[in-house]
Amino acid sequence: MKKINIAIDGPASSGKSTIAKRLAERLNYVYLDTGAMYRCVTLLALKGQVEAENSPALNDLLASIDIQFETDSEGQKIFLNGRDVTKAIRQDHVTQAVSAYSAIDRVRQAMVERQQSWARNHAGLVMDGRDIGTVVLPDADLKIFLTASAAVRAKRRFLENQAKGLSEQTIEELTEAIEARDYYDAHRENSPLKAAWDAIVIDSSDLNLDQVEEKILSLIEEKE
């Protein structure tokens, strides 16, 4: 059976990463969390007090950054310059700053080049983000745009953060943050968030993870 490349895009907290991981595991595909890559850049920039407008320092950061993905019995882990940052990149201060750094053209260019290189070297790939179907993998065999209402996404993020002990934000605060992130992502100059013209839009507001997964699996079967 032919392995295909799958692009999953969508707004913040729409379940992209969770679904992408489940699909990759079910199909024995490679999973690449592109959002984690931008979070790594942001975490490193914040630690080094590198402002988004600081071109020389940011260029040096991008030239030397090393991001690796490893999978073990506990799931996928992200390593930044040799250090496990799987939890660190999900902290609130990183979440609040990642849009500003990911909107910078040279940051996106550097990450997109790495993502496309990864795709060229792997058959059977699930990649999720905000511009996968439009910029990173415009020729992906299957493009999904996964979305849900801001209120639903905020509740999901709240429960997820509680389970991981990552945040003390209320659902109301998370809703406001998600709505602000949506607006920023959709209106940024570089790679704005939008569904590819040939993407299949799935609204998961009233669907659970199993239902979303089955919908996408049926679409994959049609492509294979």
From TrEMBL:
GO terms for molecular function: ATP binding; dCMP kinase activity. It is found in: Cytoplasm. ATP binds at residues 10-18. Pfam families: Cytidylate_kin. It catalyses: CMP + ATP = CDP + ADP; dCMP + ATP = dCDP + ADP. Keywords: ATP-binding, Cytoplasm, Kinase, Nucleotide-binding, Transferase. It comes from the Bacteria. NCBIfam families: cmk. This is Cytidylate kinase. HAMAP family: Cytidyl_kinase_type1. Residues 6-221 form the Cytidylate kinase domain. It is an enzyme of class 2 (transferase). InterPro entries: Cytidylate_kin (IPR003136), Cytidylate_kinase_dom (IPR011994), P-loop_NTPase (IPR027417). GO terms for cellular component: cytosol. Its EC number is 2.7.4.25. GO terms for biological process: nucleobase-containing small molecule interconversion; pyrimidine nucleotide metabolic process. PANTHER family: CYTIDYLATE KINASE, CYTIDYLATE KINASE/PANTOATE-BETA-ALANINE LIGASE. Belongs to the cytidylate kinase family. Type 1 subfamily.
